[in-house]
């Protein structure tokens, strides 16, 4: 569940070696054995392992030793002459592999492109990549990608920044990654996640971190179960909050948001509109047609502002924020879509505070930060974190592997969701789900996290039943209840495993 940066991993590795007195070569041998076992699971008959000069290469040498021990057909191509270049544990790993009879050669241009094997193991570079690959390393990566064999990366694909997921140019395109001890944050977020393929975590004996160490994590049902979902027999609609929805120019968007809030469990959904509704809403909702929409939601515990709003002014948003900040009881708010434009000020972004959840897609995030959309997509983690810092709000940056960033630096990555959600109105449903969870009393970070998980799971379920091609935003709404059942099923399954 934890996701670690390269610096955090170095600290855990150091603590294990220095505090628990576990030699580094022992950890390296555990890593090599984990890679060898992953290779065996794939039933690869002939294996080529590409090793660099550091500890990642050492893992590769010991993987070759274990495969040789198991009777596998394995050979190593080294980026450098291991006899003359390797040092420390990596040199000891090479010596162990050579003593076991592992065959090896030093890389020559073109030798990887024509490699004849069932599987390539990428042990070229580990978690220290922070700049573009050059020279032989770049050529080796290009040749591995051009080879016909699938690639299994050790710890992280060569070329991915382990802390940020950034890719600077040439990068190994793996079908599988074996992460040592903990998955690296860089393979959980895009673009790194696209290059990592399926990630499996191997326990190699690294000292476990403490929860208070502030690590990033995936959104996980067990993490949120104790904060949501209990319903008492003597409860009533007021027990589960009132979610107010602004109705703007595109009224359908507000209706989708309202449905999302209701399905997520809000006790009452209130539509505040300044004009007659074009279509009769569901009878489940309360409709208030008033000239001052902000004041119409004075009794709400959560507000969704932005879906279908149309032209929005900073003054309009200011009025809403003042009502929320001056309310006698806690009120939280989702700002989405057109509502986000009101955050731009002449001297920067408006700092609204932690009771707000911002839900931009990459283009909206870019407009707020003054970046390009391409920059946001290339540096998603940095973009979400910077927007959270600048506004003081929780930021949910939409897209594959949605990022939820809190202003205090906490980060969660949502693992659910697929192409079924790539449809108009999907974001309105998400805003409504988060609003419904806020109305029930979840804090901004937890509501955004759980909302993203439920929304993504509902999209997956709808797509599986209807195909991603045919799924609509309304279909996603219909599957929110099944996503909630899935949420509880996973919590229950994990509880059974713990017993």
From TrEMBL:
GO terms for molecular function: ADP-dependent NAD(P)H-hydrate dehydratase activity; ATP binding; metal ion binding; NAD(P)HX epimerase activity. It comes from the Bacteria. Its EC number is 4.2.1.136, 5.1.99.6. Bifunctional enzyme that catalyzes the epimerization of the S- and R-forms of NAD(P)HX and the dehydration of the S-form of NAD(P)HX at the expense of ADP, which is converted to AMP. This allows the repair of both epimers of NAD(P)HX, a damaged form of NAD(P)H that is a result of enzymatic or heat-dependent hydration. Catalyzes the dehydration of the S-form of NAD(P)HX at the expense of ADP, which is converted to AMP. Together with NAD(P)HX epimerase, which catalyzes the epimerization of the S- and R-forms, the enzyme allows the repair of both epimers of NAD(P)HX, a damaged form of NAD(P)H that is a result of enzymatic or heat-dependent hydration. InterPro entries: Carbohydrate_kinase_pred_CS, CARKD, Nnr, Rhodanese-like_dom, Ribokinase-like, YjeF_N_dom, YjeF_N_dom_sf. Homotetramer. It comes from Alicyclobacillus acidoterrestris (strain ATCC 49025 / DSM 3922 / CIP 106132 / NCIMB 13137 / GD3B). In the C-terminal section; belongs to the NnrD/CARKD family. Its cofactor is K(+); Mg(2+). Keywords: ATP-binding, Isomerase, Lyase, Metal-binding, Multifunctional enzyme, NAD, NADP, Nucleotide-binding, Potassium. Binds 1 potassium ion per subunit. (6S)-NADPHX binds at residues 55-59, 126-132, 137, 155, 253, 308, 361, 428. PANTHER family: ATP-DEPENDENT (S)-NAD(P)H-HYDRATE DEHYDRATASE, ATP-DEPENDENT (S)-NAD(P)H-HYDRATE DEHYDRATASE FAMILY MEMBER. Pfam families: Carb_kinase (PF01256), YjeF_N (PF03853). The gene is nnrD. AMP binds at residues 398-402, 427. K(+) binds at residues 56, 122, 158. The keyword DNA damage does not apply. This is Bifunctional NAD(P)H-hydrate repair enzyme.
């Amino acid at each position: 569940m934890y996701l670690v940066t390269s610096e955090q991993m170095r600290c855990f590795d150091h603590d294990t070696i220095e505090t628990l007195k576990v030699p580094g070569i022992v950890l390296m041998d555990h890593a090599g054995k984990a890679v060898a076992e992953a290779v065996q699971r794939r039933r690869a008959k002939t294996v080529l392992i590409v090793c660099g000069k550091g500890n990642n290469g050492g893992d590769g040498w010991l993987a070759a030793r274990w495969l040789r021990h198991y009777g596998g057909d394995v050979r190593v191509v080294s980026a450098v002459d291991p006899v003359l270049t390797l040092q420390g544990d990596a040199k000891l790993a090479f010596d162990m592999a050579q003593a076991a009879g592992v065959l090896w050669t030093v890389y020559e241009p073109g030798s990887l492109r024509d490699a004849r094997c069932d599987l390539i193991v990428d042990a070229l570079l580990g978690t220290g990549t922070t700049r573009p690959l050059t020279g032989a390393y770049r050529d080796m990566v290009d040749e591995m990608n051009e080879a016909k064999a699938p690639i299994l990366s050790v710890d992280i694909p060569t070329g991915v920044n382990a802390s940020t997921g950034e890719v600077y140019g040439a990068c190994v395109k793996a079908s599988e990654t074996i992460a040592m001890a903990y998955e690296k944050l860089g393979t959980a977020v895009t673009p790194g996640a696209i290059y990592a393929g399926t990630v499996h975590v191997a326990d190699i004996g690294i000292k476990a971190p403490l929860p208070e160490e502030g690590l990033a994590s995936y959104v996980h049902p067990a993490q949120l179960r104790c904060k949501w979902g209990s319903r008492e027999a003597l409860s009533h609609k007021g027990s589960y909050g009132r979610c107010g929805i602004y109705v703007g120019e595109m009224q359908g968007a507000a209706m989708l948001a309202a449905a999302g809030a209701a399905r997520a469990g809000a006790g009452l959904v209130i539509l505040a509109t300044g004009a007659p509704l074009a279509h009769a809403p569901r009878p489940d909702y309360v409709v208030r047609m008033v000239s001052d929409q902000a004041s119409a939601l004075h009794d709400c515990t959560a507000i969704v502002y932005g879906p279908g709003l149309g032209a929005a002014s900073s003054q309009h948003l200011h009025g809403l924020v003042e009502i929320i900040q001056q309310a006698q009881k806690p009120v939280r708010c989702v700002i989405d879509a057109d509502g986000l434009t009101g955050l731009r000020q002449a001297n920067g972004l408006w700092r609204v505070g932690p009771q707000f959840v911002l839900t931009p897609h990459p283009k909206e995030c870019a407009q707020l930060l003054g970046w390009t959309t391409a920059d946001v997509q290339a540096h998603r983690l940095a973009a979400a974190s910077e927007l959270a810092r600048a506004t003081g709000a929780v930021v949910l940056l939409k897209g594959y592997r949605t990022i939820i960033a809190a202003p205090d630096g906490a980060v969660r990555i949502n693992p659910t969701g697929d192409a079924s959600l790539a449809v108009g109105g999907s974001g309105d449903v998400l805003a409504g789900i988060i609003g419904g969870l806020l109305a029930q009393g979840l804090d901004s970070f937890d509501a955004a996290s759980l909302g993203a998980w439920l929304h993504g799971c509902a999209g997956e379920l709808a797509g599986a039943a209807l195909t991603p091609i045919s799924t609509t935003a309304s279909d996603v709404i219909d599957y929110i209840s099944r996503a909630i059942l899935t949420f509880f099923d996973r919590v229950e399954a994990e509880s059974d495993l713990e017993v």
